[in-house]
Amino acid sequence: MKPLFWVWKWPITTYPLLLLLGILAGSTAFAGLGKKRWGLEKALDALLWSLIGGIAFGRVGFVLTNLEYFSESPKEAWQFWKGGLAFSFALAGGLLALFIFSRFQKVSLAELLDLASLSILPAQALGWWACYTAGLAYGKEWKGPLALFLPDVYGVKAYRFPVQLAGALWSALLFLILLVIYWRANKAGNIFLAYAIGYLPFDFFLRFLRGDVMGVIGPLEPGQLSVALVLIALLLLRFICPKSSSGR
Questions:
Q1: Has this prediction a pTM greater than 0.85?
Q2: Residue ranges per domain, the chain?
Q3: Could you write out the three-class secondary structure of the chain?
Q4: Burial profile 47-79: b = 16 or more Cβ within 10 angstroms, e = fewer
């Protein structure tokens, strides 16, 4: 991929730039909404915890699911900006970090999960777009409706289902839906539940149309198994979270 520009000796391509914009968009949403709930300092602390947990777990998950490649190129294992964060692992890591933060800071876990669920969607939309520009998470060859002439990660073009564009568009649309629910909701945890129901099943089924995954149990692959486990954990967390009123 040709660099858009250079920063000192480092080439900046579209993929890391969009990832950075996604992180900034999600972080701005979380900090802005969190400031009204707990003050800017505590909101930024929670944001930092979730980012560290999400990026660390996401990269570990990506390396583990591509262990054959990274065993031959171990130095690339930590270079996440070149491509490679496993979504379900990143989500689990961010949520685990917020769970720990809520216990230390005595902040409502349900409210933290609401803001995290809302704020992650702009990051997801831009992350999917980043994958589209780099040929990552590419779709299977497809002759049905919506087929587009797209490359895979190796640059091989074919008519494929536009997985990345579907992911980006649904993430953006769901963000707008949850934003409306957020301003109307009167119970903490509703946004979190809506995200779990609205996005994770979508991601699970979208993976059947991806061309960069391999089945491990019947038609399923590691990403689908982990998404299913995360969804179950999210729903369980939703119902063990303290239910509290939260005027918007």
A1: no
A2: 11-240
A3: CCCCEEECCEEECHHHHHHHHHHHHHHHHHHHHHHHHHCHHHHHHHHHHHHHHHHHHHHHHHHHHCHHHHHHCHHHHHCHHHCCCCHHHHHHHHHHHHHHHHHHHCCCHHHHHHHHHHHHHHHHHHHHHHHHHHCCCCECECCCCCCEEEECCCCCEEEECCHHHHHHHHHHHHHHHHHHHHHHCCECCHHHHHHHHHHHHHHHHHHHHECCCCCCECCECHHHHHHHHHHHHHHHHHHHCCCCECCC
A4: bebbbebbbbbbbbbbbebeeeebeeeeeebee
Residue indicated by tokens 């560290």:
52
One digit per residue, pLDDT tens: the chain, 248 residues?
666 767 677 777 788 889 889 989 999 999 998 998 889 999 999 999 999 998 888 888 888 777 777 777 777 777 766 667 777 788 888 888 998 999 999 888 888 989 999 999 999 999 999 999 989 889 999 998 999 999 998 899 999 999 999 999 999 999 999 988 888 866 788 888 888 889 988 988 888 898 886 555 555 666 666 677 677 766 666 665 555 444 45
Note whether 80 and 59 are within 8 A (CB): yes
Q: Which residues contact 137 (CB under 8 A, 6 or more apart)?
A: 128, 131, 163, 164, 167, 210, 212
Q: Hunting for tokens 């999960």 — which residue is that?
A: 113
